[in-house]
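Dear U.,

Please find below the material for section 3 of the report. The protein was modelled together with S-adenosylmethionine; I have listed the sequence and SMILES used, followed by the predicted complex structure.
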Amino acid sequence: MPTDSPVVHPAQEEIVSGLSREPPMIPPKYFYDSHGSMLFERITRLPEYYPTRTERSIMGTHGRDMAQRIPAESTVIELGAGNCEKAHELCSLIRPACYVPIDISADFLHDAAQALRDAHPTLDVRPVVADLAADIDLDGEVPAERRLVFYPGSSIGNFEPDDAAGLLSRSRRLLDGDGAMLVGVDLVKEESVLHAAYNDAENVTAAFNLNALAHLNRLIGSNFDLREWRHHAFFNHARSRIEMHLEALVDTTVAWMGGERRFRRGERIHTENSYKYGIEDFAGLLDRAGFSSIVCWTDPRRWFAVFLAHA
Ligand SMILES: C[S@@+](CC[C@H](N)C(=O)[O-])C[C@H]1O[C@@H](n2cnc3c(N)ncnc32)[C@H](O)[C@@H]1O
C-alpha cells in the first residue's frame, strides 16, 4: 500500500529524540564515523591522554600472568575494537585461534581487521559491525568454546553504571560457562590529571567532540554550523565522571529533516560521560553481572586497572 510517511531510520529517531530532550544529548556512539575514529586514534597518542599508554603498560608488565589464566587458542571477542591495536599485543600474549573485533564504525573496523590479517596471516579474523547497546548475536559465526571477551580502553565507562552492568551480563552470556572477560577500567584520580586528558593542548578532543555534529549533519540532514559550538569537558565529582558537552556560542536554530530546535547562547548538548571507578566498585559491578574469580592488575600510580573475571 503506498504511503506518504517518510521512512525514518532508527538512528535518525534516536538522534532526533536526544536533540529534542531537556537538556539535549547525543549518544556517544555518534562520535564514530571514520573521521571520528581517526581523531580518537590521535587522542590515544596525546601526552595528556594517559589511559591508553597506562593500560598498555599494565598489559606489558602483567601480560604473562594474565595469559596463564586464559586458555590457549581462545576465541577473542573484542568490544569497541577501533583500530584493533591492542589485539596485536594480546595476540602475541595468548595466541588466539580466532579474533572477532566488534565495532559500530564499519569502514574503520574493516580496514583495521585487514591490517591485522596482514600482520598475523594465520589468525582467523572475523569483524562484526554491531551496536553494543543492543543484544550481540554471534551464533553460527564464532566458535562457542574458550571465548575471551576483551573490552579495553575503559569504554565501559561511557555507559551509565546500570547499563554497564547490563553490558557485562550480556557479555557473560556470550561465554557459555568456560570463558572469561578482560576489561580495562579508568580509576578515580586527581582532578587535574582527568581534566587535562579531556582538554588537550592541541584541541584534538575538541575536534573529536565537534565532529559528532558533522556526523549528525550527514545522518539526519541537520545544518549544525560547527563554528557556532565549542567543546566543554569537566569532572563531575558527585557522579564520578568526566562529562563532555558542546556549548552554543550564539543563539542559533538548527533544522533537520522534519524538525528543528532553537538553542540559546551557552546552552549545552551532552555528548559523553566517562565514569571513573574505584577498584572495589568495579569489582562489585562484575559480581552483579554474575562473574566470579575476579583478578585485577593496576599500574604503580593506580590510575587504571585491568580486570579478568570468569563466567
Ligand atoms: C574509546 S574508543 C576505544 C577504542 C579501542 N578499543 C581502544 O581501547 O583504544 C571506543 C570504540 O568503541 C566503538 N563504539 C562506541 N560506541 C559503540 C557502540 N554503541 N557499539 C559498538 N561500538 C561502539 C567506537 O567506534 C570506538 O572504536
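For the text of the report, you could mention the following: The first helix runs from residue 10 to 20.

Regards,
Y.
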